[in-house]
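thought: fold this chain, then report.
action: predict
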Amino acid sequence: MPGRDDIQNRSVKLQQSARLRSLALLLFCHLSLTGLVLGSAPLASETHASPVTGQAIPDTVVARTRQTSVLKQELLAWCALEKRNCVELEKLRHAAQDLVVRRELSRRFHESGLSEVPAFKNERTLILDRLAAALLPRHLASTLRQPEPEELRQLFTSIGETSRQRRWRVRNLYRRLPKDADQAQREGLKRGMSLLRTRIQQGEDFASLARQYSDSATGRRGGAIGMVTLDRLDKPIAEALASLGPGDLSPILETREGLTLLLVDEVIEPDTRSFEQAEANLRERWRKRQLEKLNKRLDARLLAETASDASTATDRRLLRARAIESRLLGLNKTPQAVDQERQAVEKLEAQLAANVLAIPLTQQPNSRQVRAFFDSRQRLFVRPRKRHLDSLKLVIDPALPAAFYQAAHELGELAAAGKIDFEQVERDLGTAVTRRDLGKLTDRQVWLLGLNVDHALRPLEVGQATSWMQEGQALHLVKVLSIEPETVLDFEQSKPQIEALLRTRAKKAAGKQLYASILKDLEFRFAAGFEPVHS
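observation:
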């Protein structure tokens, strides 16, 4: 017959299990915070077989716990699979600790009944779909045929027009002449430009002067035009630029509408490689283009074959369809794919269990702590400036003629000067451009769009637009729709942010405490004298 202590222990366990189940759904939305407990370390297999090779592992114990042991080859194979640095002894020790904590959290997850929570099942399905869909690109790549020599030669010809020309990255400082300017006005403008040229030669910053004096839309970004080739310039400009090198300043150049100065930032010499010398790169470029086409055709077929559901976003529907296609092909049946799925699910289980188990250890901030935090750090509580941005994106395609990009450039300059709106640019360029409302972005979020975009937007006011800017393989035109100025917050406005910050800190502390308590409870011991294997 069980004693009073046994009955009490069982009662406590039942209460804990009920509490875990009741909290699970509420806390599931906080999964992202569990990185504070376990970092990004994955779970290792509890079997005595390598998760990579499936072969038997020598029974060499790296660490022990009260319930299990960690084998050397098991741990090293897991580190290799997850690209985790386990060469140094101390890092291997931490990896073994993470491994046993993950195993224990996963065990407690199933013991508490959290696996029946609907939110967990939905998240598990999404994770497995992503893993399965990610296997398709490599499969498609394996189906590609080798390019024919003629196909490579056609590619060499199509991309060679620009790459086999010298290119200049330049800035300009442009002063426009009035339409009915007389000789005196022309001479006055020339004298002004001559003074500006002298100031630049004496060391003043070209970009600063361009922002201050240039009549071109490029002035807003320090005169930066970007990369140009001589065949796209008027003859007088091309002839002057041809003799300039990096850091050189041009003489004052006359155009049909005004005067300009050019500063060369960089000169890129032409690619003089023969077809034979460039063949390897051409082959890789051809494969990349073909793979993009295969993926587009596959996505179009999958979307056409799946029923449209207004409640499901297109991206989610496509992800699900790609996952099903991958499973039909059996791509998720390889040992490595199976192990990745297992580790991903075990990680999710451990995250949810860690969130729930850390609750009793988490100290919630009180009003005195919140006030003290605000008083000591008032300068931190500022609502940053936000700019509402509209954008047009034009992907660079070597197959399009130079005349198209010249027309696009002229439209961009007109939009930047405020003479036409984005709607007209979009209409004139058709499907080649993509319109997107970027929303309200902080200065940091704008910086993350790219240095060229950030630099061009800095001086703009509401209603103004940049001219075309290049980021990667695309050109961007951006307009400022509105600006919300920076605002200093008072205590009441700052209170929610402070409480959230203090709760995050408390959860981190609770996570560390939970981690340490699990290791102590399991009586974790690292094998004395163990030396890692250097691979």
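thought: worth noting. Confidence is low (pLDDT under 50) at residues 1-58.
final: tokens above.
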